[in-house]
UniProtKB/TrEMBL annotation:
<dbReference type="InterPro" id="IPR036188">
    <property type="entry name" value="FAD/NAD-bd_sf"/>
</dbReference>
<comment type="similarity">
    <text>Belongs to the GMC oxidoreductase family.</text>
</comment>
<dbReference type="GO" id="GO:0050660">
    <property type="term" value="F:flavin adenine dinucleotide binding"/>
</dbReference>
<dbReference type="Pfam" id="PF00732">
    <property type="entry name" value="GMC_oxred_N"/>
</dbReference>
<dbReference type="InterPro" id="IPR000172">
    <property type="entry name" value="GMC_OxRdtase_N"/>
</dbReference>
<dbReference type="InterPro" id="IPR017896">
    <property type="entry name" value="4Fe4S_Fe-S-bd"/>
</dbReference>
<feature type="region of interest" description="Disordered">
    <location>
        <begin position="276"/>
        <end position="295"/>
    </location>
</feature>
<dbReference type="InterPro" id="IPR017900">
    <property type="entry name" value="4Fe4S_Fe_S_CS"/>
</dbReference>
<keyword id="KW-0285">Flavoprotein</keyword>
<dbReference type="Pfam" id="PF05199">
    <property type="entry name" value="GMC_oxred_C"/>
</dbReference>
<dbReference type="GO" id="GO:0016614">
    <property type="term" value="F:oxidoreductase activity, acting on CH-OH group of donors"/>
</dbReference>
<feature type="domain" description="4Fe-4S ferredoxin-type">
    <location>
        <begin position="126"/>
        <end position="155"/>
    </location>
</feature>
<protein>
    <recommendedName>
        <fullName>4Fe-4S ferredoxin-type domain-containing protein</fullName>
    </recommendedName>
</protein>
<keyword id="KW-0274">FAD</keyword>
<dbReference type="InterPro" id="IPR007867">
    <property type="entry name" value="GMC_OxRtase_C"/>
</dbReference>
<keyword id="KW-0560">Oxidoreductase</keyword>
C-alpha cells in the first residue's frame, strides 16, 4: 500500500495514477473535504513574516488557485537530470490547458493587453485550466469556484476514490515512522485527538513545502533551510465602473526580465485608495485628487483596475520551529519597484486616474525548495530513507517566479510511473 500525505497538486495526481493501476492507496489529509465553493473558509492564518496565500482542505491550495497553467521548470530540472518534458505534455492534455476564448476577456483585461502592447511590452493570453462552458465570470477564482468550472486537485482525488483509494481527512500526520534506514509508516492525530500509527513501507509526503519540511525536520533531515516564496504586490487605481473584479482573474501575462505582470484584483486596494485620498485631502498642499473626484464614500470594487507584480525569489528563507523566517533582499525590493513602475505605466495608459494608484503590502505565493532535488531527495524524489518520497513544491530547487502547478503535476506523474514500475 502507498500512503500519500496530502491531497493537493502532488498528492492528488499520484493517488489517481496509482489507483488506476490497481495499487492500493491511502491518502491522509489534514483538512476537511469541503465543497470547492466553500474552500475560501480554509485559508491558513497569515504568517508573521509574509502573507502566504494557502489553504488546508482536500485539494490543497489548488482549490483557490487562479487556474493558471504555465509550463515552466522544464529546462531548469534537466540540469538536475530530471526530464519532465513528456509528463508536461501529458498534464497539459489531461487538464486541457488552453488560452480562453475571447468571450471570457472582459473590459479590464482587454485594456491591460492593449495598454501593455502600446508601450512595447510582450503580452500573451494566460494558459488556463478553466472550462468556458461552465465559467460564469464572477471573479471568484481565488475564493473557490462557485460553478466548479476550474480544475482542482479534488477532481483527481474523486477519481482515485472511485478506483478504490481510501481518503482519511481531518487527520494530521505528526511523524514519519522508520526502522533503521527504511520507512514503516506514519503517526497521525485524528480530529478527536486520538493518535495511531498507519503502517506502510512506501510513504509519499505531498503536504506542501512548509508542512512537508516540518515533518521531515522531526525525522532529523535538514529540510526547510532553502525556502523560496515568490513575492508579489498588487498595484491598482480607479477607472469608474470598469468592473474588473468580476472578470476571470490573471487572464493575460507580461513576462519581464525580472518580473511578471498579470491583471489581478485585490480588495485591499479599496481601503488603500480610500486612505490615500483621506491623507491627500488633509494636506493643504496636496491639490485635487483627479477628475474622478475620488473620495472614501464613492470608491466601489467595480471602480478598480489592478495588476499583480510577481518576482522570482532566492532560496534565503527558512522554517524554524514550525515558523517561516523570510526577509526580503535589496534585489527583491529593486525587482518589485521595477515591476510596480511598469504596472503603473500600463494602468495610466489604460485610463486609470494616476492620482489614485496605490499598492498592497508585500505578500508571497508558491513556497518551495525546502527539500530540493539534489539536497534532500534524489532524481526519483526518494529521501535517504528507503520508501520515503516527496512529491510537492518542496523538491523544486529553484523559484519559478510563476505558479508551479503544472511542474508539480508533471513531477508527480513521473513519480507515479516509477512506483508503478517497481510493483
Amino acid at each position: 500500500m502507498v500512503l500519500i500525505v496530502g491531497s493537493g497538486v502532488g498528492g492528488a495526481i499520484l493517488a489517481m495514477e496509482l489507483s488506476k493501476a490497481n495499487i492500493p492507496v491511502t491518502i491522509v489529509e489534514k483538512g476537511p473535504f469541503c465543497d470547492v465553493a466553500d474552500s475560501y473558509k480554509y485559508y491558513d492564518e497569515i504568517d508573521d513574516y509574509l502573507d502566504l496565500s494557502k489553504t488546508t482542505c482536500v485539494g490543497g491550495s489548488s482549490v483557490v488557485a487562479a487556474g493558471n497553467g504555465v509550463r515552466l521548470l522544464e529546462d531548469e530540472l534537466k540540469e538536475y537530470n530530471v526530464d519532465i518534458s513528456k509528463e508536461l505534455d501529458e498534464v497539459e492534455e489531461l487538464l486541457d490547458i488552453h488560452q480562453m476564448d475571447d468571450s471570457h476577456f472582459g473590459e479590464g483585461t482587454k485594456k491591460f493587453i492593449e495598454a501593455a502592447k502600446s508601450i512595447g511590452l510582450p503580452v500573451i493570453k494566460m494558459p488556463k485550466f478553466i472550462r468556458e462552458e461552465d465559467c460564469i465570470q464572477c471573479g471568484k477564482c481565488a475564493w473557490g469556484c462557485p460553478s466548479n468550472a476550474k480544475w482542482s486537485s479534488q477532481d483527481f482525488i474523486k477519481i482515485a476514490i472511485e478506483n478504490g483509494a481510501e481518503l482519511i481527512d481531518e487527520t494530521e500526520v505528526t511523524e514519519i515512522v522508520t526502522e533503521r534506514d527504511s520507512v514503516k509508516g506514519v503517526k497521525v492525530k485524528r480530529s478527536n485527538g486520538n493518535e495511531e500509527i498507519i503502517e506502510s513501507d512506501t510513504v509519499v509526503l505531498a503536504a506542501g513545502a512548509i508542512d512537508s519540511a516540518i515533518i521531515l525536520q522531526r525525522l532529523g533531515l535538514k529540510a526547510g533551510e532553502k525556502l523560496f516564496v515568490d513575492p508579489f504586490v498588487t498595484v491598482g487605481g480607479v477607472i469608474k465602473d470598469i468592473n474588473y473584479y468580476k472578470e476571470v482573474t490573471m487572464n493575460a501575462l507580461v513576462i519581464g526580465g525580472n518580473f511578471v505582470l498579470a491583471p489581478h484584483y485585490s480588495i485591499i486596494l479599496n481601503e488603500n485608495i480610500s486612505n490615500k485620498n483621506t491623507s491627500d485631502n488633509s494636506d493643504n498642499n496636496s491639490g485635487n485628487t483627479g477628475d474622478n473626484n475620488i473620495n472614501e464614500d464613492n470608491i466601489k470594487k467595480g471602480d478598480i483596475l489592478s495588476i499583480m507584480v510577481k518576482i522570482p525569489d532566492d532560496n534565503h528563507g527558512k522554517i524554524v520551529d514550525g515558523e517561516v523566517i523570510k526577509e526580503n533582499t535589496i534585489k527583491d525590493v529593486r525587482f518589485i519597484a521595477e515591476g510596480a513602475a511598469t504596472a503603473g505605466a500600463i494602468l495610466v495608459k489604460a485610463g486609470v486616474d494616476p492620482n489614485t494608484i496605490v499598492s498592497t503590502h508585500l505578500r508571497g505565493a508558491h513556497p518551495g525548495g525546502t527539500a530540493a532535488i539534489g539536497d534532500i531527495v534524489d532524481t526519483n524524489l526518494e529521501t535517504e530513507y528507503k520508501g520515503l518520497f516527496i512529491s510537492d513544491a518542496s523538491v523544486i530547487p529553484e523559484a519559478p517566479g510563476a505558479p508551479p502547478i503544472i511542474a508539480i503535476l508533471a513531477l508527480s506523474k513521473r513519480l507515479s510511473k516509477y512506483l508503478i514500475n517497481k510493483q
